[in-house]
Structures are given as C-alpha cells and as structure tokens.
Amino acid sequence: MYFFNNNKVEKNDTAQQQTAEAVSKKVESVSENSESANENSFDENSIENLTDETLVINYVKAHKQLPAYYITKSEARRNGWNPSQGNLCDAAPGKAIGGDQFSNREKKLPIGNQYFEADVNFSCGQRQADRIVFTKKGEVWLTKDHYRSFQKR
C-alpha cells in the first residue's frame, strides 16, 4: 500500500533525476569538446550551445551550481578578457561569464537570499542582456532585459 501511495512521487523523482542526468551528460559532452579544441579549430558557435538558457537553467536546478565552463569576471580578466573589446572567446575559449554575486539592489527578487548571476544565450563578442540569477538552492530567474524584469524558472 505504501508503495502505491508514493508511486507517483517516485516516478516524478525518477523523471527529474533522468532529466538532470541527461542535461549533465550534454553539458559534459559539450564542455569536453570545447576544452579539447585548440584555438585554431575552436568553433565559436559552440559557446551558443554551452550557454543555451534551457540547458544552463536545467543544470543549475539539478546541481545547484553552474557548469564548470563558467568563470567569474575576475577569472576572465586574469585570462586577458577586456569587456570593452568583447574578446572573451579569444581570451578564454569555451568559457562563459558566470558565478559572480548579484546584489539585488533594486529588490526585484525575494529578499534574504544570496544570488549569483550568469550569462545565457551568449555568442562571441559583446555580452548581451540575457542572464540568469540563481541561488545555491537551485532557484533560478531569467532576465532578457539586463535585470529590469525577471521570470522565475
């Protein structure tokens, strides 16, 4: 009887776990391919795959952290990134900006949490407006207008 009462919950947990595993495998596969590529053969389009909003959001929800190919702004600067030049793909191939704290100054997100930000839907060149803001609990918000509005995901 107990099994049947919890069968739906177990199925949901299994489905969530399978989704998380599939996302992890895709992230690991794309990340391994980008890390093994040298600068001459690096495909700039792969960063678009790495930072696809759905992929990153699902990964953060499942793992409560960003994929390993995200680096903070200070790490990127140490690698030679200059934001005004939009040279992240040259300075740190296969990497994206993410992991810095988000202050929530305007209080548009719930108060009392520690937030982190990351670029999504990035293509080489200047950073665009698409970001996620997330907590270590796996809560995620998407902004497509550089923090003016947020959608809970």
From TrEMBL:
A Pfam short name: Ribonuclease
UniProt-annotated location(s): Secreted
Enzyme Commission (EC) number: 3.1.27.-
Protein name per Swiss-Prot or TrEMBL: Ribonuclease
Keywords: Endonuclease, Hydrolase, Nuclease, Secreted
Gene3D superfamilies documented for this protein: Microbial ribonucleases (3.10.450.30)
GO cellular component, one term: extracellular region
UniProt GO molecular function: hydrolase activity; RNA binding; RNA endonuclease activity
Compositional bias segments (type: Low complexity): 30-40
Active site per UniProt: E117, H146
Catalytic EC class: hydrolase
Segments of this protein annotated with the region Disordered: 1-46
Family indicated by similarity: Belongs to the ribonuclease N1/T1 family.
